[in-house]
Amino acid sequence: MRRRHHNSNITEAIEKRFQTAMIGSLARVEDYLGFVWGHNKDAISVQQAENRQLWEELREEILDHSNYQMRCALNDLRKTLQTMMSEDSYKETIVIKQPNAELGDR
Alpha helices of 34-91 — where are they, by DSSP H? Predict the structure, then answer.
């Protein structure tokens, strides 16, 4: 039970890292190139409005693709963790000792 909770924490932490990387990367693009589409401005030119539309489409595609890849990676991780848990739960140690004639073992 404790191990399952720990595994859940790992996947949640990794998911948060993915999300932070995606949003942080998009924010950097907006910081560096936002002037092209009038980022954070109300009054923009016709060209900036066209560029803003392109940016919104690109941003949505990036988020969709990144979220898909994140879900795939998390599913792979969950499967691996589940396999590891299954293997651990069926692991048994068999001790084979040599007979000791002095103790009367046969």
Answer: 46-89
Model-level pTM?
A: 0.71
Residue 3, C-beta contacts closer than 8 angstroms, at least 6 positions apart = 85
Token digits of residue 59: 């941003």
Taking the C-alpha atoms of residue 79 and residue 93, their distance in angstroms, rounded to an integer, is 25
- Give the tens place of pLDDT for each residue, 15-33: 999 999 999 999 999 999 9
Which residues have a Cβ under 8 Å from the Cβ of 62 and sit 6 or more positions away?
22, 26
Distance (Å, whole) CA 9 – CA 15: 10
45 φψ region: left (φ > 0), alpha (ψ -120 to 50), beta (else): beta
